[in-house]
Amino acid sequence: MEGEAAARPPRPFMGVKARRGASFRRDVKGDYLDVPSDPFLSAILSKQGDETLLFADKVLKCTGTGKMKRCILMITGSAIYLVDPDADVLKRRIMLAAIDKICLSKLCDNFFAVIVPSEYDCLMASTRKTEIVTVLVEASKSRSEYEIGVVFSNRFEYRAAADMVKEVRFEEVDVPEQTDIICWYTELVWTSQIHGSNLRK
Fold this sequence. Notes:
This protein is α+β, with helices and mostly antiparallel strands.
């Protein structure tokens, strides 16, 4: 029976999104960076009066040019923080109340887009996306009656900047000995692609 359970594919996230076995078995820790021991990160939260840290980890963030840049993502009970780990600079703070929804594909990739109508959106990738989405939804519910929406689609738009809208399209492609996920970014007449295999830690 144990062997059969191990061989059984993991249940889809929220009944929709496919998951890898490693994602299903991963321990949930919350703070993967030990923020209290980091003076710079702790100072950022202290300055904003944020005491309840719900999640912290390094993720990959898509820039306006379609490149992936590593950054630190921190989630508290009231906001999201994006920090440049190389320059020790707080790049962005997004209030949870400003987030309309989170967009993900239905495939087992690591991407998720945080949609912020009053500002601009943020496309990121993390092996802990399931935990991130769950934390954001639960945090929004605990603060008010409002709940951040979660949308699953293999094609969606996001604003990479205030004046730049891109379409993200996901495709499942069979390659030797594995199935890879390709994420296409399209802005007007140009297209770039990122292979999911390059985004795994």
